[in-house]
Design goal:
This protein has 732 residues and is of the alpha/beta class. It has 29 helices and ten strands. Among the domains are: 238 residues, Alpha-Beta Complex (Spore Coat Polysaccharide Biosynthesis Protein SpsA, Chain A); 121 residues, no CATH class. The longest helix is centred in the middle third of the chain and has 37 residues.
Length: 732
């Protein structure tokens, strides 16, 4: 981080405009010759509708490729010059500004049916990091639950209570369970802002798998204090804890190529950057005032609630006059990634539908032009897949037409030899230019790393890094066509108005896809690949050779998806030091603590609750019941009709067990503080004969056996602590 020499509020608009015009011109200068070459190839055999479409699609795809390569080039140049002068981290004098923070900051983690152990250990690591840095007094923590699973809900409460007790975090670490999870994560954050936002100037938004060091959070807060015109600062989350080959490939590639890309991204975004939904600090007051998400006209998937909220919130913040920055140099921001291709594609389907909703916002009034660019690029990042597929289909069709008609693309004769040579030269040049743009960011990232010896050593040295780049390039060459097919399918389903839900992502060792999932997901890809390869070979063996990398991805999809999604080979590579990242070679204390605690957690305690065990625990266990009731809102004057309904539900639950109630009725009881308190008292006072077998078994296993009439008249009184109490301690 640089000494203070930059004030975002004084950034010259003309300088911003020059940078963006330069990027646009450079993309045009790179794209135009390629389009001219492709156009010349078509011109030799005459234009028609198919060839014109082929050329237009090529122009769009090549422009996107050129933009990515140019960003990497600009980032590489800036990093060789010790960084961009216009960056938000240069606005703070890090050597002098070491005093206490002025304003309080809330650290908020929205969760929904997540692994409770992972959530609590992540919060513990962040809490301990701030405490070790002596910065804890300026921060409060909020775990904001939208969990719909009762077992997950109760485990969250118990884990929160255990964490508060362990860290002495009373009055600083809070848990809230929403009654209705309206608008998913965006609604969860909005609910926090309405209820508690006025107590805090800033909030740091995390995901369930986020980890941030105390130093990173304090750095974000200092940048906010130094820049009162900034509304949001996005830190770069680095991928960590990957165990499968797929996850390790992602974290290796993002860690190696990310620095040059993000430096180039900041070059033209500046104060109109984007928000990625987590690992960012937000100024609460303008966010609450200006960033309430509207409902789009019509029904889903294009209408209704906005699914991809982060881009829209950044655009609304900028529309209100607040700057949004990307803090690429902040160290200590981490997240995890999907463990296999299928889960990665499922996550992309949600993001894809959310980005397609933004088509309405590209032309909506009031947005900053850069916000419209972000919307358009987000849409094109997914539309590029069907465009790429259409390009391949048109290429095959054009070649087939020559085969079917018996025509040659070039005339016979001596002069044709010269034309054929030129035709071949243009095609080879075009192919080389495309491959060069694809490989340029990798080469630049390696050159950038070469100049940073300590970081190079943390990657495992030059040889391991080169081999890692080769392996990553090979496997992603096979994976990219599969993502193309997935995205194309998802877009078609979206256009057919098949909306998608927002389900919890599988994480960690439990994220491996089953063999059935792999076969179901990829059988169509294999059939398509075999058929397309046969057609291409029949048309022209050269066409089959040209398309072989793509078709190989289709044909080998099951094998590649299975192999890259397994934990064991991924861990074997990790032990050997392949695909290593600096976060693995020199992990920060927060990641070490997280890994150690998760490795030693009691899996049986974490996963034991199934069915209605969460409800049973919340009623039967004094410890769990007290925690659960303390989190519920007590009604001042309950309606008589509701009291009668809840009394009937209580009777059914105690006498017949949870199976006698509908899921809606069980949740209604769990949300009612009076009912949960009464159920606990009635359960412990009731004779065994009046209780369902599940209650007798949970309270005292021996009470579930047949009892004499005399014993049945007595309440169940276990002689030892219940299983739930012992289990609660383990979970906490």
């Amino acid at each position: 981080m640089q000494v203070q020499n930059f004030d975002p509020a004084q950034l010259d608009p003309a300088r911003i405009r020059r940078r963006r015009v330069f990027v646009g011109i450079m993309v045009l200068l790179v794209t135009t010759p390629a389009v001219v070459l492709m156009g010349d190839l078509h011109l030799r055999t005459g234009y028609d509708g198919g060839k014109l479409a082929h050329l237009l699609i090529f122009a769009v795809l090549f422009a996107l490729l050129a933009l990515g390569a140019l960003q990497a080039l600009m980032g590489f140049i800036l990093r060789r010059q010790d960084g961009d002068t216009c960056r938000i981290t240069s606005s703070v004098d890090w050597a002098e500004d070491t005093g206490p923070l002025v304003a309080r900051t809330a650290i908020v983690m929205p969760i929904c049916n997540e692994d409770t152990s992972r959530v609590s250990e992540g919060v513990r690591a962040i809490y301990a990091s701030l405490e070790a840095d002596g910065r804890l007094p300026g921060f409060d923590f909020f775990i904001l639950s939208d969990s719909s699973d009762s077992n997950c809900w109760v485990r969250e409460e118990v884990a929160w209570a255990g964490l508060v007790r362990e860290r002495g975090a009373g009055g600083r670490l809070f848990y809230r369970k929403r009654r209705s999870n309206t608008n998913k994560k965006a609604g969860n954050i909005a609910d926090f802002c309405r209820r508690w936002g006025s107590h805090y100037r800033y909030m740091v938004v995390l995901d369930a798998d986020s980890i941030m060091t105390g130093g990173a959070i304090v750095a974000l807060a200092r940048m906010m204090e130094r820049n009162p015109g900034v509304g949001l600062i996005q830190a770069i989350p680095r991928l960590v804890n990957g165990e499968t080959i797929f996850a390790r490939l992602q974290q290796f590639a993002s860690r190696l190529y990310g620095p040059v890309f993000t430096a180039g991204l900041n070059y033209w975004q500046l104060g109109e950057a984007n928000y990625w939904g987590h690992n960012a600090i937000i100024r609460v007051a303008p966010f609450t005032k200006h960033c309430s998400l509207p409902d789009l006209p019509g029904d889903g998937p294009f209408g209704g609630r906005i699914m991809s909220h982060d881009y829209v919130e950044a655009a609304l913040m900028r529309r209100a006059g607040w700057q949004v920055w990307l803090a690429a140099e902040v160290e200590g921001s981490y997240e995890e990634c999907p463990a296999n291709l299928i889960d990665f594609a499922k996550r992309d389907r949600r993001w894809l539908q959310g980005n397609l909703q933004h088509t309405r916002l590209v032309v909506a009034p009031g947005f900053h032009p850069m916000s419209r660019v972000h919307f358009a690029l987000g849409i094109l990042s997914y539309l590029s897949s069907p465009l790429w597929l259409a390009f391949l289909i048109l290429s095959t069709t054009i070649a087939w037409r020559f085969k079917a008609t018996g025509l040659r693309p070039l005339p016979e004769g001596s002069f044709a030899n010269l034309v054929a040579w030129r035709f071949g030269t243009e095609a080879v040049l075009l192919f080389s230019l495309t491959v060069g743009l694809l490989l340029l960011p990798k080469v630049l990232a390696l050159l950038d790393l070469r100049a940073r010896r300590e970081e190079l050593a943390a990657f495992g040295g030059w040889l391991r890094t080169i081999v890692g780049v080769g392996l990553e390039t090979l496997l992603f060459t096979l994976l990219a066509p599969l993502l193309m097919l997935f995205h194309t399918k998802f877009i078609i389903l979206t256009l057919c108005r098949q909306s998608v839900g927002w389900k919890t992502q599988r994480r960690g060792r439990d994220g491996a896809a089953s063999a059935g999932e792999i076969v179901s997901a990829h059988v169509g890809h294999v059939v398509l690949g075999v058929a397309w390869l046969a057609l291409a070979w029949w048309i022209d063996p050269m066409l089959a050779a040209w398309m072989s990398p793509i078709l190989a991805g289709f044909i080998l999809s099951m094998l590649v998806s299975y192999f890259t999604g397994r934990v064991r080979p991924g861990l074997a590579l990790k032990r050997m030091g392949w695909l290593q990242t600096p976060e693995e070679a020199r992990p920060p204390p927060e990641l070490i603590q997280l890994e150690q605690r998760l490795a030693h957690r009691d899996e049986s305690a974490a996963m034991a609750w199934t069915g209605d065990d969460g409800l049973l625990a919340a009623v039967a266990d004094p410890f769990v019941n007290a925690i659960h009731v303390s989190q519920l809102r007590v009604k001042d004057e309950p309606a008589p009709a509701n009291e009668a309904r809840f009394k009937l539900l209580q009777d059914q639950l105690l006498r017949a067990g949870p199976a006698a109630l509908s899921p809606r009725d069980k949740l209604a009881l769990m949300f009612d503080a009076d009912s949960m308190s009464q159920l606990h008292s009635r359960l412990w006072a009731a004779p065994a004969v009046e209780l369902a077998a599940c209650w007798r078994e949970k309270l005292a296993p021996e009470a579930a056996r047949p009892v004499s009439p005399a014993a049945a008249a007595e309440p169940v009184r276990p002689a030892a602590p219940t299983d739930f109490i012992a289990q609660s301690v383990k979970v906490a």
